[in-house]
Automatic annotation (TrEMBL):
Coiled coil: none annotated. It comes from the Bacteria. This is Dihydrolipoyl dehydrogenase. It comes from Deinococcus peraridilitoris (strain DSM 19664 / LMG 22246 / CIP 109416 / KR-200). NAD(+) binds at residues 178-185, 201, 270. The keyword Oxidoreductase applies.
Length: 465
């Protein structure tokens, strides 16, 4: 049987982009359906942002307990119930995805279960159903990129999804290939839980998109914690002997090769868009050579009533970018004057300390022709950081010398993501460094480091000699 259902809007994919779009469109009075072939919440809630943060927090508990010895509190060796740890993490995911389903119900968004595929520009097949709609939003996200010599079996060679299931016993030796956010977050999780961890990275710095000073300071701190990091290094392949993985690593500058032994290898070399099986050709939706769907500022594809948002349209592949684009697409479809016109999208590596930034790096600002001024504030001068016993890190603010406008901030600090938003607001409001300096910040807080970095641009920081 064929059910023909008509909606104002059909959203394909219920990840952070898709569910934000569906709910906003429903709030604005549209009749909305959202097709999802897996669990609502997408990568972010199920196998991305949320479960990684749960594991990071658990690992941080162990690090915190060891660290407390510095101030006279000694705990015993941690006892780990790995089944309980995995269960706790899965419980958080379940609560959040249940929350998305409840929001769909409350907003009268129809959840269609199944894989969606365009039959023509106005009809989508979802499972066995044909669904017609006036507008569509493609929010199908992304999946881990392959590294052919390391085929993922989710046991010994894992991608980010496999790495979320902490095995019992823990791998003794854990290798992460790729020092982006995902590789480094898992490196710290496994390190804190008790594995011996190395991260390798092809590029000459960790988190290649980050400001070089911030990335280098960050790498130094992670190394000090005991995580080995080999930069300018690639993994060529491995052989398995007696259950051990003998991995061939190569120094990309000298060509020198060596073999190291691991028990688990994480492949975290990037993500690719999920655009291949959607029937985009019959809908007239164009993708670029890497499979990303091209969109304009209103998030319209080459077929104007079909919109696309989130990871499937390109970098940065971040949940909050997907959410914002989802809201824009929904508002445009509902007839509002909305477009994706943001000054900056924050980026964060959620380790301890965090590496977080928003706006331009120093190199980007110089390349754009600004006369750049920078102001640093080291956490070692922050009273609050001292009370946390975590004084490694800094805030680096970047401004335009001619206008005093804030151009960006790069933070290596615990909880950096929570006080980075201030600089995001400054960027959106075209605030000056002076505006930040004139704002009273609560004492003692880590956020005062942003204030002092701003003051230091004008050589007026109180706590810098
Ligand atoms: P997705 O979340 O990928 O969702 C797409 C959905 O579409 C999926 O549910 C999929 O099942 C569904 N779908 C696909 N094709 C079809 C089809 N044909 N029919 C029906 N349904 C379909 N970002 C952050 O901002 N902060 C973080 O801390 C963070 N941590 C991360 C950690 C890890 C380990 C990973 C892997 C990613 C992390 N990300 C993080 C990135 C973040 O998860 C993504 O940017 C975000 O999920 C993208 O949202 P999306 O809506 O575009 O797509």
């Amino acid at each position: 049987t064929q059910n023909s259902v008509d909606y104002d809007l059909l959203v394909i994919g219920a990840g952070p982009g898709g569910y934000h779009a569906a709910i906003r469109a429903a709030q604005l009075g549209l009749k909305v359906a959202c097709a999802e072939m897996g669990n609502v919440g997408g990568v972010c809630l199920n196998v991305g942002c949320i479960p990684t943060k749960a594991l990071l927090h658990a690992g941080e508990g162990i690090r915190g307990a060891k660290h407390a010895e510095d101030f006279g509190l000694t705990f015993g060796e941690p006892k780990m119930d790995i089944a309980k740890l995995n269960g706790w993490k899965d419980g958080i995911v379940k609560r959040l995805t249940g929350g998305v389903s409840a929001l769909f119900k409350a907003n009268k968004v129809t959840h269609l279960v199944g894989e969606a595929r365009f039959l023509d520009a106005h009809t989508v097949q979802v499972g066995g159903q044909k669904v017609t709609a006036r507008s569509f939003i493609i929010a199908t996200g992304s999946e881990p990129a392959n590294l052919p010599p390391f085929p993922v079996d989710q046991q010994k060679i894992v991608d980010s999804t496999g790495a979320l299931m902490v095995p019992d016993p823990l791998p003794k030796r854990f290798l992460a290939i790729g020092a982006g956010a995902i590789g480094l977050e898992f490196a710290q999780v496994y390190h804190n839980l008790g594995s011996s961890v190395k991260v390798i990275e092809f590029a000459p710095q960790v988190v290649p998109a980050a400001d070089a000073d911030a990335a280098n300071t960050f790498a130094k701190i992670l190394r000090k914690q005991g995580i080995a990091i080999d930069l300018g290094t690639k993994a060529n392949g491995f052989t398995e002997r007696d259950g051990e993985l003998h991995v061939e690593l190569e120094d990309v500058t000298t060509g020198e090769k060596r073999v190291e032994v691991y028990d688990r290898v994480l492949v975290a070399v990037g993500r690719r868009p999920r655009s291949a099986n959607l029937g985009l050709e019959v809908a007239g939706v164009q993708v670029n050579e890497r499979g990303f769907i091209g969109v304009n500022k209103k998030m319209q594809t080459s077929t104007p009533h079909i919109y696309a948002i989130g990871d499937v349209v390109g970098n940065p592949m971040l949940a909050h970018k997907a959410m914002k684009e989802g809201l824009v697409a929904a508002e445009v479809i509902a007839g509002k004057k909305s477009e994706m016109d943001v000054v900056a999208i924050p980026a964060v590596v959620y380790t301890t300390p965090e590496l977080a930034w928003v706006g331009l790096t120093e190199a980007e600002a110089k390349a754009k022709g600004y006369t750049v001024k920078t102001g640093n504030f080291p956490l070692s001068a922050s009273g609050r950081a001292m009370t946390l016993g975590d004084t490694d890190g800094f805030v680096k603010m970047i401004s335009d010398a001619k206008t005093d406008l804030v151009l960006g901030a790069h933070i290596v600090a615990p909880h950096a993501s929570d006080f980075l938003s201030e600089v995001g607001l400054a960027l959106e409001m075209a605030a000056t460094v002076t505006d930040i300096s004139l704002t009273v910040h609560a004492h003692p807080t880590l956020s005062e480091s942003v204030l002092e970095a701003a003051e230091n641009i004008h050589k007026q920081a109180i706590h810098i000699m």
